[in-house]
Structures are given as C-alpha cells and as structure tokens.
Amino acid sequence: MNFRAIATREDILGDLKNPDLFQYGDETMHAWMEGRLSDDIVVEQRKVQEAELIIFQFPLYWFSVPAIMKGWMDRVLAQGFAFSMENMYNNGMFKDKKAMLAFSTGASKSMFQPDGINGDMNVTLWPLQNGTLHFCGFQVLAPQIFWGPAHCPAQVRTAMLDGWRDRLRGLSAERPLTFAPCELFDLSLQGGFLLRPDTREEFDSQPHGLTTGHHLGKPLPPDNQIKAPPQSGACGPSASTNFIST
User: Fold this and answer.
1) What φ, ψ does residue 58 adopt, rounded to 5°?
2) Residue 192: other Cβ atoms inside 10 A
3) Which end of the chain has fewer CB within 10 Å, C or N?
C-alpha cells in the first residue's frame, strides 16, 4: 500500500485551529469532526467503521509492531474517531468490534517466558492490546503467536499455518481477553482515575493482581494477555464476516 507512516501537518486539510502551537492530536480531532483529514486516513477509517473484526498481522519488531503499522495506528486511530476521554476502554468507540494480533517472533517461546531472557510475553503485549486496542474499545481476542518460524523445520511452519487456518474458522465464537472495566476506577480529576478503594480492598486477598498492568504488587495473573479465561465476560455481539487484515 505504501501507507505513509509519519504523522504531520499534511494530515490536516485547511487551516489549523491553533497555528501558534501545533498539537497533532487536537488538530486531527477537529479535522475529523469537520471532514478535513487527508484522504488516505479517511479511506482507512472507513474500513475500520465497516469491520467487525480487525486482524493485525505482522512480525514482532523490537517488541512491538513495525514502523508502518505503528504509523497506521498513530494516524488512523484519531481522537474523536477512535477514542475520547468519555469513550475509552470498555466504554470505547469500538466496543462492538473485535480485534486481535497475529504475529511471528524471531525468538523461541521459552525466551518470552517469565523466567526467559526476553521477559514475559504478557508484559510485552500489554501496551498494544490494552493501551491501543482495548483503549479504543475493541474486544481483544487472544493473540495468534508464531514462535520463531525462521528457526523451525518446514513441517513445523506448515503445522503453524494449519493451526491458524483451523482457528480462523471458529474465531467468531471465541471469548475476548479480560481487562479491568472503567467501573472499577474513580473516573474524576479529584479521584485521579485510580482504582476505587473498595475494589482495591476486594483484591487484597487475591493471589494475583487484577491484570498484567494492574498487578497491585502481586504476581501477574497467568497468561492474562495470551489466553482468555473460560468464564471471561465477553461484551457486545460476536464478530461475523467483515474483516480487515492489516
């Protein structure tokens, strides 16, 4: 596609709201509201609006997505279109949509274990799955991880693809991962958007933290960002037939 990854003044058509202090997020929000975003962004936003499920397929680069995909997120998921301070996380704009990561690693699975040299993959995935996808409201399905395919025999790579193909057939019935709902937090400036005291007290007796990010000084809940628990609370309708794979 040759999608332009760099967020610049060129993304806003017409005059700036504040030419003396260019703030990309504020300007793109106003441009979205007024229909003044650049055409390439608008095309991608229409795809997001029409999709019920978005699959982000990529090789893991430096513990994150490659540059162009990161630029897609920066430019397409504009404030107002994808999120607002009133509409975020489980109350987010895309709460009726699903999204997931499908990626390959250059390292083996053991290297991404809690005691592996790269650290816990659950921690690696938290910024992308919670801070980007869930922040915009997506119900996030468990990731599809292809561990070190470059170092595997051909038959193992074939088995990886066969497993992915089988999973895709039943993807619409899967439960999403669990995240801490906004209702557990004091969503006011006075409360600092912190966990409510009664919620914190409730979790004091639990053996694990609330999520990978909200560990509360406890061990992380096992595979919180990799596997959906059997009784996880899915919200919103199941995805069916409209897909974007980017």
Assistant:
1) -165, 160
2) 10
3) N
* DSSP state string for 5-58: ----GGGB-S--S-TTS--HHHHHHHHHHTT-B-HHHHHHHHHHHH-SEEEEEE
Centre a 10 Å sphere on the Cβ of residue 233 and count the other Cβ atoms it contains.
11
Q: Model's pTM, two decimal places?
A: 0.89
pLDDT tens-digit map of 123-169: 999 999 999 999 999 999 999 999 999 999 999 999 999 999 999 99
Q: For residues 101 and 140, what is the distance between their CA atoms, to the nearest angstrom?
A: 9
Tokens of 87: 């509409």
Q: Which CATH superfamily is domain 51-178+233-245 in?
A: Flavodoxin domain (3.40.50.360)
Helix (H, G, I), strand (E, B) or coil at 88: coil
Domain boundaries, the chain: 51-178+233-245, 179-223
Report phi then psi at 182, rounded to 5: -60, -30
List pLDDT tens digits, range 33-91.
999 999 999 999 999 999 999 999 999 999 999 999 999 999 999 999 999 989 999 99
Question: Is the separation of the CB atoms in 100 and 191 below 8 Å?
Answer: no
Counted residue by residue, the chain has a size of 246
Radius of gyration of the chain (CA): 19
User: Left if phi > 0, otherwise alpha if psi is -120 to 50, otherwise beta: which for 116?
Assistant: beta
